[in-house]
Amino acid sequence: MAFKDLREYISELEQEGELLRIKEEVDWNLEVSAIIRRSYDLQAPAPLFENIKGYPKGFKILGAPVSSSASKGRFYARLAISLGLPPDTDVATIIEELAKAKHVKPSKPKLVKTGPCKENIQIGREVNLFKLPVPYIHPGDGGRYIGTWHTVVTRDPDTGWTNWGMYRLMVHDETSMGGPIALSQHIGMHYYEKYEARNQPMPFAVVTGTEPLIPLVSCFAVPPGTDEADIVGAMRGEPVEVVKCETVDLEVPVTSEIVIEGMVLPHQRKEEGPFGEYTGYITSARKQTPIFNVTAITHRNDPILPVICTGAPVEDHLVWSIALAADILNNLRSHGLPVKKVFIPPHSALHIVVISTEISSPNIAQLIADVVWANKSGACIPKVIVIEDDIDATNMDEVLWVFCTRNHPDRGIHKIPNPSAFHHWTFLSPKEKKSLTTTNVLFDCTWPKDWPKEFVPRKATLASLWPEDIQEKVLARWESYGYSLK
Ligand SMILES: Cc1cc2nc3c(=O)[nH]c(=O)nc-3n(C[C@H](O)[C@H](O)[C@H](O)COP(=O)(O)O)c2cc1C
Ligand SMILES: [Mn+2]
């Protein structure tokens, strides 16, 4: 089922017990973010703040839009719902569904004349970003962050390729925002290689408060040259309806809660950051980054601003981990490797990837690690664990067990030089931080192929050791023993 807008998603969350309306007045200055953080700690429902100090009644913030659920077996419920899947879908199925999305037939957006995002239009001197309830998130942040669960729209001036990507944005003043633009990201390809290289301003539109698939796909590894809008259209089964911007030549989803339009001027920078990062630490420094000059803001009546409180796991980690895992799964399979599951435990802050596989060759673990690190999605993960497919890669209790019992402290650990470390990694030494070189590590938890069969220890689990007829009998009689089925 496709959601028409963020409001339909909110209704669905509410029906599933995944949303709490907060009617008490709350302060955008650290209180909203502290509540979101505590909701992570307790895996509590997503807070919908309906009464924000200093802002008109009706203006809202949706916190924790895709964070984890405390309900049993529904850790990924909000993400599953966002993807139109049942709330109790297991993570391996979610990752497989995403991996499939890469192969769907793209569906172009449909241009409509007008719609909800045009209910309020502020242009030129009417523009004031502080009229929106932008939160101050982490103590020590460089400013108030408006973009934490949003989409930045830019277009390649030569090919027309329109990119939707998620890149954080801080408010500088009433009419400008800023955030890092990495050259390796698609927005960086547009900005540095096209517009700035020609000394031209780059038109942008930031959309926030959209149907949930849009921010999700905005942080997926969609190949360069592919419009994320077409992938969203294909995944939801009908095209995204878009409308023309007021002041720039771009289109935006018509049901967006808030649209911010403008230009990133060439060669202009302003200090942005620091900001609490996904590593769980305040790792980003104050830096000179490009400036997003705002020429118009349009929004729905009673707009809703979604906010993720990045930092220690787990929220952005949930979504980013499934996005990266799906891409790594596709990459490994396209190399013909017999991989069963790929899982990035969100609590690892995206520092480790677990891969289960059939053991088709003695050096399978190394073949897998080579492919992981050769691709963009895997290059930001410094640690790889390869396990055999008798173990569920998504079950961390099982993974810890085989890591401890099958990984040889010498033979099973492979250290591989990494000449392009990610600057956020907190384990880097001061010297490594400068050179951005470090060491990746592969933990090979497979039994050596040359061990005699009878030497490999047999697992003592119910499913592997007990005779099948006894297993069947016990399962069939489970309730009559007095246990409940779950
Ligand atoms: C909550 C969240 C915040 C993110 N912030 C940034 C960011 O500030 N800069 C960045 O380069 N990538 C950031 N990312 C990752 C990008 O969204 C991701 O790499 C995506 O693929 C970028 O789109 P692109 O592939 O079209 O460039 C963030 C992801 C999430 C989930
Ligand atoms: Mn892209």
Lay out the secondary structure.
Layout: H1 6-15, E1 19-22, H2 31-42, E2 46-49, E3 60-63, H3 77-82, H4 91-101, E4 110-111, E5 120-123, E6 145-147, E7 150-155, E8 162-165, E9 169-173, E10 176-178, H5 186-195, E11 202-208, H6 213-218, H7 228-236, E12 241-244, E13 251-253, E14 258-272, E15 287-299, E16 304-307, H8 316-334, E17 339-343, E18 352-357, H9 364-374, H10 376-379, E19 383-388, H11 396-406, E20 413-418, H12 430-435, E21 438-444, H13 462-465, H14 468-476
Helix pairs in contact: 4-8
The chain binds flavin mononucleotide and manganese (II) ion.
Would you write up a description of this structure?
This protein is α+β, with helices and mostly antiparallel strands and 486 residues long. The protein has two domains: 6-307, Electron Transport, Fmn-binding Protein, Chain A (Pnp Oxidase, Chain A), CATH 2.30.110.10; 335-463, 3-Layer(aba) Sandwich (UbiD C-terminal domain-like). Helices cover 26% and strands 24% of the residues. The protein contains 14 helices and 21 strands. The strands form four sheets. Strands 5, 6, 7, 8, 9, 10, 11, 14 and 15 form a nine-stranded antiparallel beta sheet that branches. A five-stranded mixed beta sheet has the order 17-18-19-21-20, sandwiched between helices. Helix 4 crosses helix 8 (316-334). It starts with 5 loop residues before the first helix and ends in a 10-residue tail after the last helix. The model has no long low-confidence stretch (mean pLDDT 96). The site of flavin mononucleotide has 21 residues, from strand 8, helix 5 and helix 8.
